[in-house]
């Protein structure tokens, strides 16, 4: 018996014709995924740009506020200090606690206004125009022994900017934990940073005179002021906190 076969148009166009719908669906699915991915990337880029813009505007406002209140700080100085402090303090609000131009030259007033605040930035401008200071994580307290942690550092802002950090000894622990070095001394008679026979920064009871030397507490420090002994023009203390 003869057998007969009915040929379809697809048979005439070739055996692969039957697989075209499946290939088309795969292509459409791939295009859809690519489109979704491109839109997601574009949205993420837009969000990132918006966040950065907000951060820049926020930083600009913060810089403007600080420099408007300060008698010595420029925007570059503030940015340098923001970059220098430990990461957990970088986004904190700056608040002026004490200024000799507003509150007078008095160590008692100094302690009264800053005693409960931490961390703080102490700034000194001398009569030669140099600007320098110290960052402390502990609140100032009147006592006759050193305190503070290895996150304490001293710095110069003008004419050059440089931060001098604790001369780390791995046997003494991390900077945030170490309590045993000569970081900060604040008595009824003076304020001093650093030890080992020399202060990195020392200010007298009247807040009018001070000195700076190559204290072994801080790595690489020669001195902060142009001359070892200096006369104070202005002192400010800023807190970094909400």
TrEMBL record:
Pfam families recorded for this chain? TLD
- The main location class comes to mitochondrion
**Subcellular location, record wording:** Mitochondrion
- Bias (Low complexity): 19-31
Identify the residues that the record assigns to the TLDc domain, covering every copy: 71-241
| Mitochondrion among keywords | yes
Q: Which UniProt keywords apply?
A: Mitochondrion
Q: Which family does it belong to?
A: Belongs to the OXR1 family.
> What name is this protein filed under?
Oxidation resistance protein 1
Which species expresses this protein natively?
A: Chloropicon primus
